[in-house]
Amino acid sequence: MKPNRWMATVILTYLLISCTEAPIVDTSDPVLARVHQRELRLSEMDGMFPERATTADSAMIIEAFVNRWARDAVLLWESEQNAPGDLNLDRLVRDYRASLVRSSYEEHLVSTKLDSTIAQTELEAFYEANKEQYQLEKPIVRCFFIRVPYPTPEEEALQDLWNNGNPQDTAALAEYSRRYAEVALLRDSTWYSLEDVAAQLPEGTLTADNVNSKREFSQLDGTNRYYFRLFELKPRMEIAPLSYVIDQARRAILHGRKREVLERAREEIFERELDRNNIEFFTNR
Prior knowledge:
By secondary structure, this protein is an alpha+beta fold. Helix 3 packs across helix 8 (242-275) and helix 5 (155-164) runs antiparallel to helix 6 (167-180). Strands 3, 4, 5, 6 and 7 form a 5-stranded antiparallel sheet that branches. Strands 1-2 form a two-stranded antiparallel sheet. The chain has helices spanning 5-18, 55-81, 89-113, 120-130, 155-164, 167-180, 194-198, 242-275, and strands spanning 31-35, 38-41, 140-149, 183-185, 191-193, 216-220, 224-234.
């Protein structure tokens, strides 16, 4: 980075503010801070200054970065002074580099070889084989729920649609909710956390203890009108239905496939290099 005259002014301003005596400033790449023998130069801040930053803005950016750098640098120096005598830094660096390179290549292998398509039959088979791990921690419900503001728009029409329960009326109820409702859960095949539904009602209205006795109700407070209809409840510790845990099941299947891809790739690479005589063993095997 080669600072222009404006940047040189920024640096000079910063150094004048920061020091009791103004140092000689090398505007080609000035030193901003020094901790023992380690130096921070302006070139290390390349790209950190917004395009329209003022001189004052840039000085603030420099000050914040310099302070953070100095704290990190002095902690590093202290760590080096107190490092165990048998600490093999070169080996740690080699191991860390090898880990980064290997992880990067493994990500490439997964991105090019992993089939992420999962058939419904595979999901169902996986779920059946592993359903015991999907015990519910909290109750879930299939239900209809609507929360509309009060006074309620077209209240009589809403009451008729809610009470009839015909499929055609459910579609009309969904259209009404799209226009007026603040919250609407109208998919009777979808499972919801009871806790999430209860959070949309006044506190204590719907709980795990009373939900079975309040299978259908409507109520009003000073702000909203609420409608609730329970179709099915699954209490805590029951096995969750597949539709409720389908995303978890997909992730588990893909994780297993990823592990298989990597294990297969590792073995193929090993066997290939063994056949090419690029692997030698010097112990009895």
